[in-house]
Amino acid sequence: MKRNSKIVCLGGGNGMPQAVLLGLKKYPVKISAISATLDSGGSAGKLREAFKTGISFGDIRRAVLALSDADENTKNRFAYRDWTGHVMANVFCTAMTAATGSQETAIRELKTRLKVSDQHEILPVTLDDANICAVLENGQTIVGETNIDIPKHNGDLKIKEVYLAPSARAFPKTLKAIEEADLITIGPGDLYSTLAHVLLVDGIPQAIKKSKAPKIYICNLMQKHGETDHFMVQDFADQIEKLLGSSLDFVIYNETQPDVQRMILCKKEHPELLSMVENRTSDPRFIGADLITSSGSITHDPDKLAKTILSIMICKP
Fold this sequence. Notes:
This protein is α/β, with parallel strands linked by helices.
């Protein structure tokens, strides 16, 4: 691995920031976090709709906080959720957008306030206003990230197709970051409600396909009801490749099974999560490792994951 290698990380939610950014920031690399921007629920989605900001700032906030070098008090203030359910960083970015007319200025100001190193970038995948739509196997169309994420429809129905309405164009600086990347990671994150809406933005799959950098997909730890019921690692990878219109170089997946008590607690806290994702293929591109934390919630251990990612970078000519 060369010092100051450029790593582009695509995703959103808590997955990519907590699993990937927290680990990679400890190494001498330049990170460009490309964040999802089309949330339609929660604090970020409600502010997006109420103030017509075009994009939501929730996933950008998570990436900024993960890369922040600010003191804990400052980070806690921006992560604070008030009695109305709004997160202060989302309110800050919404207010900055209203005051300046620029989402880019809002992101830059949040990055400055939270003391993110100048060597790292937090970039929106798009500044356009759009929604992710999912077509179910019965022909029903579900509109909006939150309606896919928390299904009010029959979650047993498979998602057959996803698209953006209207179409959205990639943010130019995001395309430049992909063009200059030495390594590209995708995920982890909800397959359809997060990663699909990143990879469906016009210009993103084309730029990734054109790039000569190794492309790594980081598979989710668990299946999720309404999105990835009964999925194996191969199923996740197939869907990502379908969205990209090209092949992945590597797929990183967890091969450790947590103990029964952790699984019971996890399902109690997150009933939408089903079983651990398993790999049943001998595809040499698939790299299995112990990637979960040793105790507590079943999540990716960012240090273990960073070492696995960087080992690929070192070995890849």
